[in-house]
Amino acid sequence: MDSRISRRALIAAVPAGAALAVLPRDVLALDVSAARALIDKAIADVNRVINSGKAEPAMYKDFEQIFVRYADVRYIAQSALGPAGRGASPAVMNGYVKAFQGYISRKYGKRFREFIGGKIEVTDARPLKSFFEVISVAYLKGQSPFEVRWHVFDKSGKNQFFNIIIEGVNMLAAERTEIGAMLDKNRGDIAALTAVLQKTG
After folding, report:
1. What's the pLDDT tens digit per position in 62-103?
2. pLDDT at position 29, please?
3. For residues 193 and 179, is the Cβ–Cβ distance under 8 A?
4. pTM of the model
5. Pairing of strands 119-128, 160-166
6. Nearest-CA neighbor of 100 among 173, 175, 29, 168?
């Protein structure tokens, strides 16, 4: 199997060079060391799960807990939904965010299962625009190492990541495309989109 195809399968493909959507405006007390420490912890948890030997359903639950603990779920969900969410009621948005949380955890949980027997290691961190980028390297059996980049901010008041980039493939941009297509299929109905997300991923 071509290694580049396997790597690209980790995240839904998007056009090369897609722009990062809805960048956070500022960074508060976060610094390079704190950003790196956050991703070190997240990766340690991911490595523990992928090599735990658990069945898929149990692994997906663990990935969801990691996602909730280390990622700004609401920001990612709202960014993926875009302007369509501005007029939605709090109840509708809360339902959507909860469904998105499960959807994204299952989706990327399946991708991370491909890392079984491998590992991810943090190699560097740097300030980038209004957030911090933490660079890690993924080692999979039978493949050349490749980069996984994490974007970290403290927009919600605590340090969390809000994007993952694997070999230039941008999670936020990819999910905006995916969620936008699902929303179009459901005629812009966020509640209907929520029902779809509960069964997808």
Report:
1. 999 999 999 999 999 999 999 999 989 999 999 999 999 999
2. 63
3. yes
4. 0.80
5. unpaired
6. 175
Question: What six digits make up the tokens of 124?
Answer: 């560097």
Q: What's the confidence (pLDDT) of residue 10?
A: 42
- Spell out, as residue ranges, where the chain has pLDDT lower than 50: 1-28
Query: Of 77, 91, 107, nearest to 191 (Cα)?
Result: 91
* Cβ within 8 Å of residue 72, ≥6 positions away: 153, 155, 156, 160, 161, 162
Separation of alpha carbons 7 and 61, rounded Å: 23
Confidence at residue 126, expressed as pLDDT on a 0 to 100 scale = 96
Dump strand ranges (E) for the chain: 119-128, 131-139, 146-153, 160-166, 169-170
Relative orientation angle of helices 171-185 and 73-81, to the nearest 10 degrees: 50
Edge-to-edge order in the sheet of strand 119-128: 119-128, 131-139, 146-153, 160-166, 169-170
Please give the full DSSP string across 109-164, using - where no structure is assigned: HHHHGGGTT-EEEEEEEEEETTEEEEEEEEE-TTS--EEEEEEEE-TTSS-EEEEE
| The predicted structure's pLDDT at residue 141 | 82
End-to-end CA distance of the chain: 24
Per-residue pLDDT at 8? 42
